[in-house]
Amino acid sequence: MTKFDLSEHPHNRKNILTGEWILVSPHRSKRPWQGKVETLNNTQRPHYDESCYLCPGNKRSDGIESNPDYKSTYIFDNDFSALKMDVPEGEVNKNDLLVAKSESGKCKVICFSPRHDLTLPEMSVSDIKSVIDTWINEYIELGKLENINYVQIFENKGEIMGCSNPHPHGQIWS
């Protein structure tokens, strides 16, 4: 197994002013970014976008795997996960100014709909129920894992919030 590296591996870092431990995921800076920094664009999105790595049948952002031709809610392990399961154990303490320890976990992406142009509130009640059922199932299954103490389910929507892709999706960090 490789050696723990602060610049590559997820870890908790101690804030020496407050004593709080903060999650740091340095490898996330390598993920693709399709978000923008300018004002919100209100143009209509297509039902399907051939350049979207979350649309059914398209190559994922890792450039290796392709999404199945999914017809409803679809979930997969995040290609650029904030946490990883295979992080080597390690700690760093540099004169009590930088105190950090490795952190492992699992992150997933939930595509709410195969349609690129639908947001959660625009979906049918039965399709929204499918999303909620997926949240419940993932919460239960991830919570059973030995190294998981917390499961966070969220949607970061829109360019201004740091969402890297406009396709309707959410994430699970555990």
Explain the overall architecture.
- The chain has 174 residues and is of the alpha+beta class.
- It has a domain at 47-86 and 104-173: 2-Layer Sandwich (HIT family, subunit A).
- Helices cover 11% and strands 20% of the residues.
- The protein has one helix spanning 125-143; strands spanning 11-14, 21-24, 74-77, 91-94, 98-102, 107-111, 152-154, 169-173.
- The longest helix has 19 residues, at 125-143.
- It is elongated, with a radius of gyration of 18 Å.
- The model has no long low-confidence stretch (mean pLDDT 89).
Short summary:
With 174 residues, this protein is an alpha+beta fold. The protein is built from 1 helix and 8 strands.
The second-level CATH architecture of the domain at 47-86 and 104-173 is 2-Layer Sandwich
State the low-pLDDT regions, or none. Answer: none
* Gyration radius, in Å: 18 Å
Assembly of the depicted chains:
single chain
Number of strands: 8
Q: Name the CATH homologous superfamily of the domain at 47-86 and 104-173.
A: HIT-like
SSE string, helix = H, strand = E? EEEEEEHEE
Question: Helical segment tally?
Answer: 1
* Structural class determined from secondary elements: alpha+beta
Overall geometry: elongated
Query: Strands across the major sheet, in which order?
Result: 2-1-5-4
What proportion of the residues form beta strands (DSSP E)? 15-25%
Main beta-sheet annotation: 4 strands, antiparallel
Q: Please estimate the helix content.
A: 10-25%
- At CATH level 3, the topology of the domain at 47-86 and 104-173 is HIT family, subunit A
First and last CA, distance? 22 Å
